[in-house]
């Protein structure tokens, strides 16, 4: 609000406030909040002093001197709909996303139950379990905010003071930690499978369940550290302000300001943060996964050619083993491919944003950015329940184990093949160092 408007409004509030000392402060402050659009704390001495000064300056002047046609201001309160395309956000966040998260929780819980069965335990499956949990929690934490605000009229009101910090934590900070962990776990999955297929002798010592657990813990710790400063970046102050839904009502909301250690270095802080995200959370993992997928696809083509040779030589047992190895690899390639399909748009969007903030070069319009971000995040959420269907469709062992959960049939006690699948060549050598370990009396079928 301009100084003239503040003076005028304060003058009117002084004149209209009760003359009784006991109620003067309350009635005057309510007037400042409801009429003048002040955002103030209870009985703010600074506001009272400023308003009294404004009143004294106007007292005795000719009231007709002041003709104000634009004395409105934008109150300093925290809103969720201020920088979003609310019509899309209400539909996606308020109604579709909670349903997708529910489906993700059901599907990923079933994935974890199946992969934790004794005959399914393996280093690869340990990573798949961690990925399922990361995806589930990425979608689960924002759901209370989605339902409480986006599915109701509360979206168009200031965020209540008691919700301000929770909104930041549950919508931004914690989901980013789990999403970062999910990205790095997917990269670890592709690297591990490449080692299995092309360097299986080394995989016996490198790719163990113990090492996977250590690696998973390290990934979660680093992902948390990459976000830890965000939890402490804001000072949250309670303010009283006129409601956006009922201008005759005063509501308690918050004003968020950066802490002094950030305020003095805002550009440096967020420049480092977003460049770190673009490089280490988007670019390097996505490029690595493209390379790993290409290598795995090439390895499968070599294996398929070898399988045809084995069939011509009537070596059906070896051919079947090679086919099962290829099925497992193909399934993981599909999982990684789905990940890349939904992550690339968000990575490109993040790159455009950081280029704009760093070099003042706008590659995406201001109006397009919120919509693109909303739909990019929605596509990622949409992909979370799909891995379950990939496992069911492409892994016979997963499918059979899942069916036995509901039929009551006994679970297999052993696995027929180890994780160390090979790509043998015609002359007895291998295209990669490989070996197949065969166990007796086990259930047939492909394994994750």
Automatic annotation (TrEMBL):
This is Sex peptide receptor-like isoform X1. The lineage of its organism: Eukaryota, Metazoa, Spiralia, Lophotrochozoa, Mollusca. Signal peptide: none annotated. It holds the Pfam family 7TM_GPCR_Srw. It comes from the Eukaryota. It is found in: Membrane. Residues 107-391 form the G-protein coupled receptors family 1 profile domain. It comes from Biomphalaria glabrata (Bloodfluke planorb). The chain crosses the membrane at residues 95-116, 128-150, 170-191, 212-232, 274-299, 330-355, 375-394. One of its GO terms (cellular component) is membrane. The keyword Cell membrane does not apply. Keywords: Membrane, Transmembrane, Transmembrane helix. GO terms for molecular function: G protein-coupled peptide receptor activity.
């Amino acid at each position: 609000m301009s100084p003239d408007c503040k003076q005028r409004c304060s003058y009117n509030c002084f004149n209209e406030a009760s003359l009784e000392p006991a109620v003067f402060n309350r009635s005057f402050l309510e007037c400042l909040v409801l009429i003048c659009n002040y955002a103030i704390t209870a009985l703010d001495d600074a506001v009272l002093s400023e308003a009294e000064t404004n009143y004294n300056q106007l007292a005795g002047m000719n009231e007709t001197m002041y003709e104000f046609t634009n004395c409105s201001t934008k109150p300093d309160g925290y809103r969720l709909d201020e920088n979003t395309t609310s019509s899309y956000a209400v539909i996606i966040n308020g109604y579709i996303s909670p349903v997708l998260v529910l489906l993700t929780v059901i599907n990923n819980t079933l994935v974890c139950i199946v992969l934790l069965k004794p005959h399914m335990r393996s280093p690869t499956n340990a990573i798949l379990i961690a990925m399922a949990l990361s995806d589930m929690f990425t979608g689960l934490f924002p759901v209370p905010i989605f339902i409480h605000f986006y599915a109701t009229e509360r979206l168009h009101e200031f965020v209540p003071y008691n919700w301000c910090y929770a909104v930041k934590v549950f919508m931004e900070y914690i989901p980013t930690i789990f999403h970062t962990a999910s990205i790095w776990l997917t990269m670890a999955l592709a690297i591990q499978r490449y080692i299995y297929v092309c360097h299986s002798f080394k995989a016996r010592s490198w790719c163990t369940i113990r090492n996977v657990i250590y690696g998973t813990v390290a990934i979660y710790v680093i992902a948390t550290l990459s976000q830890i400063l965000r939890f402490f970046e804001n000072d949250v102050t309670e303010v009283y302000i006129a409601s956006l839904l009922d201008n005759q009502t005063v509501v308690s909301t918050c004003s968020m300001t950066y802490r002094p250690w950030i305020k003095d270095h805002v550009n440096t802080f967020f420049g480092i943060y977003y460049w770190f995200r673009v490089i280490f959370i988007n670019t390097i993992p996505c490029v690595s996964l493209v390379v790993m997928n290409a290598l795995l696809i090439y390895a499968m083509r070599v294996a398929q050619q070898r399988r045809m040779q084995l069939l011509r030589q009537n070596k059906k047992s070896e051919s079947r083993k090679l086919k099962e190895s290829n099925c497992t690899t193909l399934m993981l390639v599909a999982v990684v491919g789905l990940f890349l399909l939904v992550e690339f748009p968000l990575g490109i969007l993040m790159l455009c944003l950081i280029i704009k903030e760093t070099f003042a070069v706008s590659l995406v319009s201001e109006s397009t950015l919120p919509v693109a971000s909303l739909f990019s995040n929605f596509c990622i959420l949409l992909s979370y329940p799909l891995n379950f269907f990939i496992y069911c469709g492409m892994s016979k062992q997963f499918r059979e184990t899942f069916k036995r959960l509901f039929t009551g049939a006994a679970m297999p006690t052993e696995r027929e093949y180890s994780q160390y699948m090979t790509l043998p060549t015609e002359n007895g050598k291998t295209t990669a160092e490989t070996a197949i370990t065969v166990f007796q009396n086990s259930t047939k079928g492909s394994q994750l």
